[in-house]
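Progress report, Aim 2. The chain analyzed during this reporting quarter is listed below.
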Amino acid sequence: MGDAPAPALDAAAHVLVVDDDARLRGLLQRYLAEQGFRISTAASAADARKLLGSMRPDLMVLDVTMPGESGLELTRALREEGHDMPILLLTARGEPDDRIAGLEAGSDDYLGKPFEPRELLLRLRALLRRIGPPAPSDNARPVRLGVLEFDPVRGLLEGMHGDERRTVHLTGGEAALLTVLARHPNEVLSREAIARTLEMDEAGERAIDVQVTRLRRRIETDPREPRFLHTVRGRGYVLKPGA
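Predicted structure tokens for the chain:
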């Protein structure tokens, strides 16, 4: 599922809104449709699973506190199943620790209730830009990470499995972070600079740490002893390609 093409920014991106609050679902459906999105809605995680069996949305807006399977549980399960579309979690709890819990589960952004619909719109557009075609760059060459190779132009991580070349699954957030690092190999990037490039909000710097932990699980043989993605204490992170 990780190699599906990203939607063009000027195309009608398809958003799946999952929330047990019928009033909020209706509000978001009308508002986002007016902004040019294609919208599907679900009232529960079970309903969302049924829809995902026949569609592949570009983005998901997912409520955390739903009866039955919670938004956090659904997010974690979808990531384990290989779904890589960006997921934005909605919750009445907007504390930083709750946001980090969402990111650890595999979400790409987090928005506390109540919120202004325009803020949600800006967050969704930022997520689309992260997974959209990157701008041309002199540092857009593929980088070698042991048996893996990452192409920052295509946003693809690939490696050999026997005699077959396979794509390694990355979420939209993981691919965006690796693209930023790969465009500046052997250069220390601060959390602030990474968050600014990825258009993340004031909590983004802490969220970068969570994304780095997730990304190391994809590219490192032993994430506790990284060969490629290093922490530079007090400064940030650096990607050091190598065979």
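The chain has two domains: 14-131, 143-239. The CA atoms of residues 139 and 184 lie 7 Å apart. These observations will guide the mutagenesis work planned for the next reporting period.
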